[in-house]
Amino acid sequence: MACGTILLSYDIRQAAGIEDGYKRKEVLNINVCISAENIIFAEIIHYAMTHQEFKNAARQHQIDFKVNDHEINVPADRFPIRFMKRNGKEYRIDVRSSLTWKDAVDENGDYRIFFSGFRHEITEIINQIEFPSKGQMVTNLLRSEHIPYNLFYPMRYDLDGAAMLFNRILGKNKIAGIGKILIEYNPGGLHDGTSFDVFVEYDNKSGQKGGIGIEVKYTEKEYPIKRGTKEWNETHNEAGIHLADNYRKPSTDCGWFKEKHIGDVPFEDAEGMTHHVVANQYRQIWRNHILGASMVLGLCDDILSEFTSLTIYPKGNVHFSGIWSEYESMLTPSGQETFRHLTYEDLFHMMQECLNVTKIPNLNQWMDYLNRRYIIK
């Protein structure tokens, strides 16, 4: 009998009884013991989807939802077409995971990208706001701008249940009551346009005002910044990493970050550049974190006594699944108390347990929609 770690062919997958979910092109490492005639033992020991593979799966999931789910139900042959020029040639791009403008609205003029049970109310809010990415928000099913509305808008009908939910997420029974849930909120503390995707304001058990700043991700990962841009100039100088005052003060004064991860780092220190809060993979999370710090420090009009930064993401997003231990290692013990992360899968389970079906209209239908819409099986 021979044993070892191999790449399984489709036939061996079938013989070993491995589920269809693994019949993909990705690498699958499996411990297998083979006798002369039969596979007698097979154990999956490692499987890792790359970020691009996750994004491709998410794109196909949204295409299937758009075509097959009654919430949108648009024919497969209707999608926006864009053209791109590169090296003197024009290329056609079929954007199958997006809606045409005509298909983006239902028979009532409301945006189909939102759950039908709250679609009209959310559409009214969106139509009162003007912002550059509004068109992408209501047509592109793969982007995350619309997700805060689908996930958090309905919670305003059950603030008691929402308080129970966030107490569970924080791991502490500190929230006495939630005052408001705001979407796309910029308190102005960093003077750079940074906003919370969602901001939850609450009173704690001592009667003081606290807040939770939520970053909502779907297929996103890190992004580079170009030398010479405003964002670059506020995080670098000619020698290397150097935080401008609007970032340096909250990062330093809050006491949440270890000094070596927020201090100056010369370009030639490759390791220091990589393990810094402004490195590409951590920068978005850090900015959300210090936006809350600016509120605790009184650097804006909306002052808090306590704050927690929360990032939510699908468990299949390998970028975000893989950065938490490193980011948390940059935090002091008090900083770790102000930071949480949670997958969609865990969040939806908690929502089902904490929110009240008698207070939120269509609660069960809404939860079923969220799972169909965003969870990639």
Features:
disordered N terminus, 3-stranded antiparallel beta sheet, 35% helix, 5-stranded mixed beta sheet, alpha+beta, 377 residues
Give a written overview of the molecule.
The protein has 3 domains: 46 residues, no CATH class; 93 residues, no CATH class; 175 residues, no CATH class. The chain has 16 helices and 12 strands. The strands form 4 sheets. The protein has a 5-stranded mixed beta sheet. The N terminus is likely disordered.
Topology record:
Elements: E1 2-7, H1 10-16, E2 28-34, E3 39-47, H2 51-68, E4 81-86, E5 89-94, H3 101-104, H4 119-127, H5 134-139, H6 147-152, H7 159-170, E6 175-185, E7 196-204, E8 209-216, H8 230-233, E9 240-241, H9 245-253, E10 265-266, H10 270-274, H11 283-296, E11 306-313, H12 318-321, H13 324-329, H14 333-336, E12 339-343, H15 344-354, H16 363-374
Assembly status:
single chain
Note the gap between the termini.
35 Å
Mean pLDDT equals 89
Q: Helix-strand pattern, N to C?
A: EHEEHEEHHHHHEEEHEHEHHEHHHEHH
The tally of strands reads 12
Query: What is Rg?
Result: 23 Å
Domains, number: 3
The major β-sheet equals: 5 strands, mixed
Q: What coarse outline follows from CA principal-axis ratios?
A: globular
Secondary structure: helix percent: 25-40%
| Structural class determined from secondary elements | alpha+beta
* Sheet with most strands: strand arrangement: 6-7-8-11-12
Beta fraction of the residues? 15-25%
The residue ranges in which pLDDT falls below 50 over 5 or more consecutive positions are 1-46
The number of helical runs is 16
